[in-house]
Amino acid sequence: MFRRERLATPPPAPVETDWVTPDWYPEGTFVDALPGLAKHGPRRGPTVRTASAIVYDIDAGEVLFERNADDTRPVASLTKLVSSLALMSNNPDLDTWLCIGPQHYPTRSGARSRLSTGDCLQGWDVLGGALVASDNRAAYALTTVSGLDMDFFVQRMNEVAADLEMESSSFSDPSGLEDENLSTARDLARATLAVAAHPVLSEVASAPWWDVYRAEHPARRLFTTNHLVGREDLAFQAAKTGYTDTARYCFSTVFETRTGRHLLITLLGAEGKATRWADVGRILSWLGENGSVPADTGRKTVRRTKSKRHATARPATTHKKRR
């Protein structure tokens, strides 16, 4: 989670806006930095190959660099950021149990999942599966946890996007598999910041791994799709990857650097997986924050919390798992 004292000094630069924090969003967070994303930033900066990009300094409330940041594109599993916000906006009971069934299978063929029909698990683990491992059946199961049917849940996703002033976005399913899930780098940056500032979602979206506890089955460990999680110089508050044939490779993250800066990077439409990670490295080098190289996918650098349900992104936080 963010270190509140760092964000309090200095506060984000004031931005003239009529935007107010939505009623469903927790009080006392620093999501007030969100309006700064409305300001356009320089188009000259790091050499990136990703189709759309935005880099945002959260502390200063300043867009440091953008490239085609308002181009509308399919956004693949970055959609799950909005799905998780829609879930939390409905005040769910994450301790509730549910069983995976055919209604949780995405309609698009070839969608992978580590969850099988008959797996019974809690809402916490559905949320962890969706945000940490980008599991598509878990994303569909968020609708059950929310208490809404699919149509109303998707409607709620679009209402949440409107609340965050994601004006160029529209969503059609919770997983992001459908090409009708459309957004921009600027809009997805808003959703990423909202997830990173959320006291529950940040805990999940920053975890290097998540243990899914299934009734009458052994626990299954799901690892993050964020290949940068092993870096010693970055403390992630939220990170989400995405890929479909149409959207190509996507990534959006909020993190704290070793020097104490809080930054946001959103990349959409990288042609290759390696390009996506290389562009993050090029941006960090341009910012003067590229202090180390990725160690691996985080399997050797994680630390367990007392609940042993999930790892905590570096540096380790002191709060316990909400049960």
Percent of residues in helices comes to: 25-40%
* Derived structural class: alpha+beta
- Helix count? 8
How many strand elements?
Answer: 11
Cα(first) to Cα(last) distance is: 18 Å
Q: What's the story with the biggest beta sheet?
A: 5 strands, antiparallel
Can you tell me the overall shape? globular
> Considering the protein shown, what is the CATH homologous superfamily?
DD-peptidase/beta-lactamase superfamily
Instruction: Write the element-wise H/E pattern from the N-terminal end onward.
Output: HEEEHEEHHHEHHEEEEEH
Number of domains in the coordinates? 1
Write down the overall mean pLDDT: 85
Give start-end ranges of low-pLDDT stretches.
1-12, 292-308, 313-323
Strand content: 15-25%
CATH architectural designation: 3-Layer(aba) Sandwich
For the record, the CATH class is Alpha Beta
CATH topology: Beta-lactamase
Q: Which strand order does the major sheet show?
A: 2-1-11-10-9
Give Rg in angstroms: 18 Å
Write down the oligomeric state: single chain
Secondary structure blueprint with pairings:
Elements lengths: L3 H5 L43 E6 L4 E6 L5 E2 L4 H11 L7 E3 L20 E3 H9 L4 H11 L3 H14 L18 E2 L1 H13 L3 H5 L3 E4 L7 E4 L10 E11 L3 E10 L4 E9 L2 H15 L36
Antiparallel strand pairs: 1-2, 1-11, 3-6, 4-5, 7-8, 9-10, 10-11
Helix pairs in contact: 2-4, 2-5, 2-6, 3-4
